[in-house]
């Protein structure tokens, strides 16, 4: 198959274009006209972090990132997401030539894929796992919508460069970030970093709690545990997420990695974020401008506010960086 189908259409988001655009317009309309004192899109904001859950859960949060995204000069868009479908060490690139959406297809930049694959010694993503993976697909309808707002016709739309980032250590993230640095510096490239944040609950093997508000002293709850008598569980979730967001805002790749090691926060896209932060940190040293090449979190939400130990929630974050 040359075209990857929109496998989540009709389940994770609406399948018919009319219904889908109605949802996207609804979410985008809730974003303020200005963010961080800037009109939208934010000039030079060529990289975002956005969630990848079903739109009923994360669509409103994702709208903030996509409203900030500046595609005005984009010729290609890198989409980096984690693997939920198979065990992967390092990175894998798509073998497809097109990615379908209910609105129309995106063309994959096969030339850039080939160069990145060779330079980073990346694998080919097995097509069946590529089709099953949602972390890349969930961004395509939003990206198509923003391209329609930016360009006069689909023929002018940027090509896409889908990359699945698997299990990578600190050093490997820095290496991949260094590889992507030249692309990051090129104003014809934009980047989407796909990640949800805390997955809380025993079904995620992460049910931490701190009555003292100290993320360095987290204990574990179980389905049969009594309801905590202290602050509600969702306050602990907020604390671990805020610590992760502060690390993202810090611009330090090491600070982000260290934070997740401290809390164990189940940020599913921690490796794509780590790669992006490593690249941004290198670029920041060249720019010597604290207002550029550093993520700024603009929206945070949770799927529910957990009170009982047998409940669960997933957190969503949107962020951007000006390059």
TrEMBL record:
Superkingdom as given in the UniProt entry: Eukaryota
InterPro entries (UniProt xref): MEMO1_fam
Organism of origin: Trichoderma semiorbis
Protein name (record): Uncharacterized protein
Annotated PANTHER family: PROTEIN MEMO1 (PTHR11060)
Gene3D superfamilies (alphabetical): LigB-like
Any single Pfam family the record assigns to this protein: Memo
CDD domains hit by this protein: MEMO_like
Similarity comment: Belongs to the MEMO1 family.
């Amino acid at each position: 198959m040359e075209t990857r189908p929109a496998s989540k259409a009709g389940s994770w988001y609406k399948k018919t274009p009319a219904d889908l655009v109605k949802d996207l317009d609804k979410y985008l309309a809730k974003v303020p006209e200005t963010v961080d004192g800037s009109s939208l899109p934010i000039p030079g904001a060529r990289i975002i972090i956005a969630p990848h859950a079903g739109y009923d859960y994360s669509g409103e949060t994702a709208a903030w990132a996509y409203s900030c995204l500046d595609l005005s000069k984009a010729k290609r868009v890198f989409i980096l997401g984690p693997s939920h479908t198979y065990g992967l060490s390092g990175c894998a690139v798509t073998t497809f030539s097109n990615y379908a959406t209910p609105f129309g297809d995106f063309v994959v930049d096969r030339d850039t894929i080939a160069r990145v694959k060779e330079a980073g010694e990346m694998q080919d993503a097995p097509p069946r796992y590529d089709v099953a993976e949602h972390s890349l697909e969930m961004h395509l309808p939003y990206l198509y919508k923003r391209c329609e707002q930016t360009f006069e016709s689909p023929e002018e739309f940027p090509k896409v460069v889908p990359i699945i980032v698997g299990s990578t250590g600190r050093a490997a993230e820095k290496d991949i970030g260094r590889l992507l640095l030249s692309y990051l510096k090129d104003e014809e490239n934009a980047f989407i970093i796909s990640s949800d944040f805390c997955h809380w609950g025993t079904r995620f093997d992460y049910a931490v709690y701190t009555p003292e508000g100290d993320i360095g002293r987290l204990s574990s709850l179980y389905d049969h545990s009594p309801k905590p008598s202290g602050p509600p569980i969702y306050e602990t979730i907020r604390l671990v997420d805020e610590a992760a967001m502060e690390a993202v805002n810090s611009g330090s790749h090491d600070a982000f990695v260290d934070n997740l090691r401290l809390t164990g926060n189940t940020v599913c896209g921690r490796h794509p974020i780590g790669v992006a932060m490593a690249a941004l940190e290198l670029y920041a040293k060249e720019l010597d401008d604290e207002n550029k090449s550093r993520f700024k979190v603009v929206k945070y939400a949770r799927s529910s506010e957990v009170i009982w130990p047998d409940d669960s929630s997933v957190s969503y974050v949107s962020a951007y960086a000006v390059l």
